[in-house]
Amino acid sequence: MRLMGFSLLAVGTLGVGFMAFQSMDSDAAQKNTSFDNMDRAVVAELFTSQGCSSCPPADTVAAHLAKNDNVILISRPVTYWDRLGWKDTLAREENTELQREYARKDFANAGVYTPQMVINGHRAAIGSREYQVRDIIMSELKKSSAADLNVVKNDQGGFTLTLDGSSDGRASVTLVALDSSETVQVGRGENRGRKLTYTNVLRDENVIGTWNGGTAQYTVTAADMQIADADRYAVIVQQAGAGDIVAASYL
Predict the structure, then answer these.
(1) pLDDT, tens digit, 9 for 90 and up, residues 163-189
(2) CATH of 17-250 among 3.40.50.2300, 3.40.30.10, 1.20.950.20, 3.30.70.1450
(3) What secondary structure letter does DSSP report for 16?
């Protein structure tokens, strides 16, 4: 893993890094960056853990970002810190594997560590550095998009999705089910005794179709949005192999 000048502590044979990063002045960051009046959405995925003492400031950043309708914020708790004494109650092995896939792409700040924020599948920052995260999000929002995603609620209580544009190869169209707020009392490990709140925690994700460019329609039924513990849903269009995210929308 490229360390990007950070002082990291290697952990076991996982090749992961860890550092106690403090959040910057998040109130000032919010005041100085507005995502209003943007034509597209950006996906920000926070890789976090209940067993990571550096993660709570990043979880706060995630809560701030989730207030913006055009920032699809997804908290993805990982599993590799479970061995430190506390098994993360929200972690999914799929989140850990996705982070590893991103790490193999070797873009700036890629790697297997927490807290990490990955934006649109190809840019990353330490998750607690709100100024840096917001700067990346803003730069992604200002880019022109090759894909346009239109979402319309249908009479059956579901949604009709229309994708139009060009794609650099095959992309998956994925429905993600999110738990908008979850509070956990941590009993052991680095965060022992702390009550931690997580925003937009991933509960499930299902591929509803693929896209190779052009115009295509997809349907999300009301039954598709009956995932246990989920109360918020989004659609993400991502190129194969944990590639770039080219379109996304909350439902």
Answers:
(1) 999 988 899 999 999 999 999 999 999
(2) 3.40.30.10
(3) B
